[in-house]
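S.,

As promised, the beta-L-fucopyranose run. Input:
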Amino acid sequence: MYSFNFNFAWGKFFFILLSVLFFFSCSSRKNEKKTNIVYIDSGDTMTEIVKKAANVTPSARQYAWQQLEFTAFVHFTINTFTNKEWGDGTEYPALFNPTELDADQWAKVCRDAGMKQIIVTAKHHDGFCLWPSKYTEHSVKNSPWRNGKGDVVREVSDACRKAGLKFGIYLSPWDRHEPSYGDSPGYNEHFKNQLRELLTNYGSISEVWFDGACGEGPNGKRQVYDWQGYYKVIRELQPQAVIAIMGPDVRWVGTESGYGRKTEWSVIPAALRDNERTARESQQDLVYIPPEDRTAEDLGSREKIKQAKKLVWYPSEVDVSIRPGWFYHANQDDRVKTPVKLVDIYYSSVGRNSLLLLNLPPDRRGLIRENDIAGLMEMRRILDATFADNMLNGAVIKASDLRKGHPAVCMVDGKIDTYWTTNKGVESAVIEFILPQVQRFDRLMLQENIRVGQRIERFIVEVETKEGWRKICEGTTVGYKRLLRFPVVKAQKIRLQILQSRASPTLNNLGLYASPAAAAGDVEK
Ligand code: FUL
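Predicted complex:
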């Protein structure tokens, strides 16, 4: 009797415990879903739509990804040896034979440049695999490199881990070698098998990059990709990885120029997250001009969200190569982007609420080229010199509104998890900074706390002069990070006016800086 009671009591206890755990796990899953996607009802007023948009937030994996800011793409494969951009799949694996491949060099260059992740082209459109896949003979295992025992994916993933970098893979859905390509179910199985190999054997993967490019003409093979099946494999094996481009987590900015939008909303209509559409607008030929609607300046303004049925958090990634081509070509050695150009790209991508994915193509030795490294390091030097000292440190800050627990000092404490915000219902604000002394500056950094949503829609920045306040720059969206450049000014008082926001604006970091040229140069009158 006693034992029956004991078991019954414990049974009841465990049943309640399990129910509570189940309830919390479900509700937290539901919450994440609820804030990552929002539905617009047909009766919603504009005020209600704007409020909904203001509270869409990144998933945990999207937020972690966004904080990487600056990452590397490495395009390297048989094309490096055939001097092509797109191989056709008939290349002999024996051609792949880098003489000095050193993934530690790649990782060191990337780390020194301030990049936080490397994505390697495990398989490009020609189908050649940089790892010894069990599912094809078209791979490094049939090349003379390391006597057919080599594995580039292994070497790069190891090097990344040693250097403290994240590691991602590019796996081209379009495969010009694989015979099953075009036989939809057969190739889908093949592709999932390859994904499983890559996602189980190489440690933690932080980004999976699915290219939308496909050059099959009207009479070419037509493969119906099982996207949902691919995503399922990724979510199961590497749940922390973001799926980019032909995927639900990261949006292709729409060009390969390195320049993002000045107005960049991470919250956009879900219709833009459509793979068919991304594929249509992706590269279908070697000569490529992106269609206009991809490059449209506005994807998420009030006008755009008004017409949507569903809004999603879908942040932008800017991919660009340091050279004209994605792969190494000796005749482009003198066409490496200059440090000034690279810095301009940085401001126009990282500084415009996007992540920068900069491609560094190793040469036939298997090394990143010396002049590419020199340009990159000079870019880093300029950025480091600019962002070394935040002139707002030690400034007196006056904000027109403060929410309890979110003091103005949170904007300049250098911490990402503390933030200033206003009281509920207050959607504009003026924040004034009085610097310890007169300073000269020409760069400003703003960061919103996107974990509660992206909200700021319009702001201006002014400095106090003898004649009164003078505007030095203005902008629309802020998002995760916004960098502004303006002619050098000399002032002690600076103020930020947030003119319009979708809900209480937030700022978790604000920085005022002088570029090396400004620090040394003349002051604008
Ligand atoms: C494009 C591809 O066709 C290029 O070769 C390159 O891989 C680039 C990143 O994406 O769509």
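The chain has 14 helices and 19 strands. Residues 2-36 form the longest helix (35 residues).

- D.
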